[in-house]
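Moderator note: this is an archived Q&A kept for reference. The question asked for a predicted structure of one protein chain; the sequence and the answer are reproduced below.
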Amino acid sequence: MPNALIIDDDHDICFLLNKFLTKHGFVVHEALTSRKALEIIDQVNDLDIVLCDYKLDGTDGKAMLIKIKERYPQLPVIIITGYNDLKTAVEVMKMGAYDYMLKPLFPEEILNTIQTALQQKNVFKPSRKPTTSQPALGKPVPTSQTDQYIFGNSQVFQQLIKQISLVGPTDYSVILYGESGSGKEVIAQEIHKKSKRAGRPFVAIDCGALSKELAGSELFGHEKGSFTGAINQKIGSFEMADTGTIFLDEIANLSYEIQISLLRVVQERKLRRVGGLKDIPIDVRIIIASNEKLWDAAQKGKFREDLYHRFNEFTIDVPPLRDRKEDIMTFASHFLERANESLGKKITGFSKEVEQIFLAYVWHGNLRELRNVVKRAALLTDGNTIEARSLPFEIVNYKKFLFDAGTDAPANFAQPGINNQKDVVVISKSLTDGNSLKEASIDLEYELILKTLKEVNFNKSKAARLLNIDRKTLYNKIKLYQELNNRLLEK
């Protein structure tokens, strides 16, 4: 059973959280003071998660977070507070907090956040000895069962399996190209598992989430006193991955200065911590990922060309989900199994209507979006089969939101089993037949929304952001245009 530590000087909060988490299978430890919390953290060998109040006796959540992260960098910490302060939230997230939750607390929200934290691939159980100078090298980083990868049956995915099997046993650096949510990190893990480094550390870093100021510290570590806030020595991700594999996702987001430091690490297999005076040898395999071609980024001056050539020993293109429709239900069934395990349910499958909806949808968020849709639907389902009513509105009504689905529709909108000309509402170029200013405004508004939707491949979330409106407003506008068009067709 997972072990959770609650740090809060409010007896009532501790009691309620303890009772709730115990009910859901956790072994719960409580600490009313920061000193007691640190004692428990050092004594409990298999602690999995920490929930820490921001206001504590004589200290605060930031100070407590620093102490925990200095001892156990990979232990997820959720900060709880009654103050809605965006600046504080940003600060604690940059300092390594897994999440930041506001009071009053909602039980299901807490449970979902904790379960998600426990499913992260690099969460490992700390040893009894704090990690103050050197991590335990060679210790495997366990992966949650919920994150185990399965492969589809499509021809393009079979080719992907062959590439993983081919490059896995080597020590080549690998570049993974693919859209967000397409499973690049899990494929990197599969490569690691097939290598001679299997059983050694696997460390994944989202370079897009690293601030320019802290990226060097996160990747290479820092010495005590090297900059403001560096109150202790920190082991960087490369040292943590020594003898194993490091995965750098969205690597093109790293600043030019960090790319220079990274080039030295790749060439010489040595690193120097921020503020350090000595070189530290490392033995690590590097796998990187990007949703844009690094060669193109190099030509634009966004990525160092010499660094690109160092990494470009083997390349794998991860196909988007919309290009392998045959795999959609395979993955959906896999995610349903994981959801059943998490929720304690026995949902057997999907209705025929849901299968048709899944096959018709484009899945802009790829596997991540599919997984989240299945998890949400499983939570809302009371029976044995997931029905359409449990799916998000935009998934069920996807076809209705396609404008001009004839000659102007993107190629990937050709959906199996669906006659676009009959099933999709085609809106006229002019929605009104009057000359009033209001009617002219509606026509101009429609043209702008249509143009924006086409630019973002009909992704409603992106379109709403570009138009500076929320998604609900966009859906309401679309509904209005469809009603106006229907009226014109009836005349």
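Archived answer notes: The longest strand covers residues 47-53.
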